[in-house]
Design a protein that fits this description.
Blueprint lengths: L1 H41 L4 H24 L3 H36 L1
Length: 110
């Protein structure tokens, strides 16, 4: 009976190690994706890029609940929240710049 307990303990250790390894692997790729997304959010704003920013915001906000449930590292979730906020600010700023450009254009026509 003791041998079965040792085998079960070993199996649990292997599963926990595999989960930890998977979490670390996902973290590396996720951080690369978040770094790319952040770079998009902070670059010069243009109307042509607005839909890309909105698509990235929509995609990240859509998977965020699953990300929080799957990723054990709080840092990754915090980074994802920060990047999501940056994308939101970038889209709002782009909308504001577009609004100002339209106002300038309309005032120059009058």
């Amino acid at each position: 009976m003791e041998k079965h307990g040792q085998v079960a303990s070993l199996c649990l250790l292997l599963v926990f190690d595999a989960v930890e390894l998977l979490n670390e692997t996902v973290k590396v790729f996720l951080m690369q994706l978040l770094n790319f997304t952040e770079a998009v959010a902070i670059r010069r704003r243009s109307l042509e890029k607005l839909f890309q920013i909105l698509d990235m915001y929509d995609a990240l906000s859509g998977v965020f609940p699953d990300l929080e449930a799957m990723v054990m590292d709080e840092f990754v979730c915090t980074e994802a929240e920060r990047v999501l906020a940056g994308l939101g600010r970038a889209s709002k700023g782009t909308f504001m710049e577009f609004e100002n450009a339209v106002k300038r254009e309309t005032s120059s026509l009058c």
